[in-house]
Amino acid sequence: MMITPVHRFRDIERTPEYLQPEKCVPPPSRASLGTMWFIRDGCGIACAVVTWMLVFYADFVVLLVMLVPSRDYVYSVINGTLFNTLAFLALASHFRAMLTDPGAVPKGNATKEFIESLQLKPGQVVYKCPKCCSIKPDRAHHCSVCKRCIRKMDHHCPWVNNCVGENNQKYFVLFTMYIALISLHALIMVGFHFLYCFEEDWTKCSSFSPPTTVILLILLCFEALLFLIFTSVMFGTQVHSICTDETGIEQLKKEERRWAKKTKWMNMKAVFGHPFSIAWLSPFATPDQGKADPYQYVV
Question: Where would one find the signal peptide in this protein (predicted)?
């Protein structure tokens, strides 16, 4: 088998002897694999906390500054219910994206026993990551923050304190979508509230003083506009990545496609589940993605 320039980006050995399995620590027992997935990264944890605080701030301004003082009861109930529903779905999606194993390859599985169990044939190639000492499947990449190889890793996102990979891409896409929707909704309500306050007495359009009301609305407007642009771009990028079945890392490295090409609809179903239903929009529905065997380490 001829090794192309693309293959040089990965550690390739043709025989188990070169993998130095004696330097690898055996993987943890199956009993310890059921523990909750959580990345202990200070920067990521801080970003995740800030994300929740910003959503709570937006909810505070929407409810106590704009909706509760409003004289239109129907307007307040409809917009309050819609905004809080979208905010709840956004935080639930964030929670699932953060605490779901993105597709980690068993760490330290490049042991002599495991390599022998693969029953390699002459000419077969195995991929080894020297950083986490694992024999990894195709399309897996090592994350320096998670300190693991992740299947179909797209990127590591500090805002969810996790990698975006094969198992949690759906939740990340939903998170960006719902954040974009509540940002747009907040901007629309801020615009209507400013028009209402200009036509009425400022002391009657809010429970706070006029200067405080203006400051709170301007901060919300700036926050909503910033995250509307950011999450909309991320949402579009992720959907394009799913449709083309090419992760962000693969696009960045311009890796040669070595996997079967599928239709856009098949790629969407692979991430969100089959068949299409309202469960696609739910962060509580775990898609039956029919993933490839994670132990396909040889090509």
Answer: none
